[in-house]
Amino acid sequence: MLVWIVHFVWISLFIGSVMMVSSRSCLFLFLLFYLAVCQAVGTGRSDKVVVADIVSMDLIPNANSKELFAGGYRGVLGKIVLAGKVAEFKRVSAPLDMDILVIRSLSDDEALIGTAKGEIYRLRNDQLERVALLSEFNEPILDMAVKGDDVWAVGPRGLVANSKDKGASWNVIEIDKVRKELVLGGTEATSWFFGVSNVDADSLVFNATVNGKKAIDDEDYYFNASEGSIEIVNPLDQGSDLRISFNYLPGPQFQAGDVSFNTVSFYAEKVLLAGEFGTVISFDEKTGWRSIYTELTNKESSMPYWMESNVKGQNIILVGAGGVASFSADAGETWVSHNLDNDNGIFDAVLTADSKLIVAGAVGTIAQHNKNQWQLADRSELGLIAWLKSIVSLGDGSYLVSGGRGSMVLFKNDLWQKITLTGAN
After folding, report:
1. What is the rounded CA–CA span in Å between residue 176 and residue 379?
2. Second-level CATH architecture of 48-174+340-424
3. What are the helix and strand counts (H, E) for the chain?
4. CA angle 64, 67, 70 (to 5 degrees)
5. pTM
6. Each residue's pLDDT tens digit, 157-191
7. Helix (H, G, I), strand (E, B), or coil: what is residue 389?
8. Contact, 424 vs 47, CB < 8 A?
9. Which is nearest to 321 in space by CA: 266, 260, 393?
10. What pLDDT score was predicted for residue 295?
11. What is the pLDDT of residues 290-307, one digit of tens each?
């Protein structure tokens, strides 16, 4: 630095003599040169603010510090170490054309990665290894869930895959049927829409009665299998069995199976999948695939587009496009809506230990739901101008949120705090 200063002084005096200006002006020129070089080469620090898009994070188990695996668009990959109001991003080399959509910790130095091209990578000791291509159409891996050696991955076009050995080998699963059970809302002559299409008419079980006799299809009611509805023509008997059940395939009408599964979670001994067309289904070895979300209406209506799920015990939260949020406290038997007041999409959600809900989403949306009220954070105060995608519990009652352009905030003690993401030049 001393050498630079000597050069600046000499250059300033030279310019001053050529331009015939005073020594005070020469000093001013010297300061301008000094500030310019400080701006260009820094003042001895090697860190800079990181503006990368971080799509997914996961806490590293057994780490001595608050350390997370992180991945995102355009080859963003590495570890984040949180210290106070600063988080350091330790980058790991990855191809620029790799868009990482989900990363899940396996151990202190190992993680599974799902990409936008349907690939599964293993990160071990900072080295990448491609282990599988789950989609022949290069559809993205949108979410993964890990429980011991058991790993599930999901994506568009009905993509569901399972690994029993921590992602070393994979089995792509084709869902051939989903069982749905519901109860009609009354006995009157009216139409009921089930919120699903592509029903197997032969699987229908409906034991309601009309004038003491079992209701007859095409006489007492009309069942529309492709649309997923039933029209009650003759009023059903009071006290009649209003339960109805059938098998169906998720997806739009006449396009069975063409559904995007956007999120996967474990709950109890089951696996939960959710996504397009209000699809929320669970799986276990005993009962197979079963629908656990019902929105029975008297007229055809659009179903929620679920984007993320989170489970804690018997509690399940589903969030999605347009600020929709639905909560179940009994493992999916009943649901209560807690939609945001605005239409901003919700991209992630976490249930806290004290029964609060934290969400993050479009245009810097972050909020907590407490005592049946949404409390939105001040985006301007936190300097949030980009989307937020990933919420991770740090295990001490605090939660780290990341998103686009290096956006990062910490939720702790019911307060939001801006975190500066830095990395080495």
Report:
1. 45
2. 7 Propeller (2.130)
3. 3, 38
4. 160
5. 0.87
6. 999 999 999 999 999 999 999 999 999 999 999 99
7. strand
8. yes
9. 260
10. 83
11. 999 988 999 888 899 999
